[in-house]
Design a protein that fits this description.
By secondary structure, the chain is mainly alpha-helical. The chain has a single domain, classed as Up-down Bundle (Ferritin). About 65% of the residues lie in helices and about 0% in strands. The protein contains five helices and no strands. The chain has helices at about 25-55, 60-85, 95-100, 115-140, 145-165. α1 packs antiparallel against α4 (about 115-140). The chain is elongated, with a radius of gyration of 18 Å. The protein starts with about 20 loop residues before the first helix and ends in a 7-residue tail after the last helix. Mean pLDDT is about 90; it is low at about 1-10. It binds fe (ii) ion. Fe (ii) ion binds near residues 51 and 67.
Length: about 170
């Protein structure tokens, strides 16, 4: 099986991109992007699961909100995988790899009530945000990849907004 080694010094064939990032640094960036890609998939599937199996008085707005979020994540997932390809590496693309790489856990057979669903999704977004905050700094300061750092900053802001949109449904005042 042929695999693409990320981050070489550039070749006449153009097979390995020469982006001015060392092979070692590229491997570091690809590793954190691959883990992010896996976590985004776990959250994507959880959102679809909850979109389908939600019940209760808030069905309408939550059904729509969960769909809005998994549709947004589908775009992010594509962008993350294509960023890995831009760096010259192969993107993980099977469920088995995603489960192995992910830090978020699946909960087969569990269908909580709507408030617990929201709390779980907020917790997932917040875990991804914490990883992104650490990773975007590592991309800039450790791996010399400002492009990925900039991308991850924008992605973190999107997750912060998605977390707030969910959290506002269960927050109480007074
Ligand atoms: Fe649907």
């Amino acid at each position: 099986m042929k695999t693409t080694k990320p981050g070489g010094q550039g070749t006449a064939t153009g097979a390995t991109p020469d982006l001015g990032i060392s092979a070692q640094n590229t491997q570091g960036v690809v590793a954190l992007l691959s883990r992010l890609l896996a976590d985004e998939h776990v959250l994507y599937v959880r959102l679809r699961n909850y979109h389908w199996n939600l019940v209760g008085m808030s069905f309408g707005p939550l059904h729509a909100l969960f769909q809005q979020q998994y549709e947004g994540l589908a775009t992010d997932i594509d962008d993350i995988a294509e960023r890995i390809r831009m760096l010259g590496a192969d993107a993980p693309g099977t469920m088995a790899e995603f489960i192995q790489l992910a830090t978020l856990a699946e909960r087969p057979g569990e269908l909580p009530g709507d408030r617990t669903m929201i709390a779980q999704l907020v917790s997932d977004h917040e875990a991804i945000i914490r990883h992104l905050r650490r990773d975007l700094r590592a991309c800039d300061e450790q791996y010399d990849d400002m492009g990925t750092s900039d991308y991850l900053t924008t992605l973190m802001e999107q997750h912060e907004k998605m977390a707030w949109l969910l959290r506002a449904h269960i927050d109480q005042r007074g």
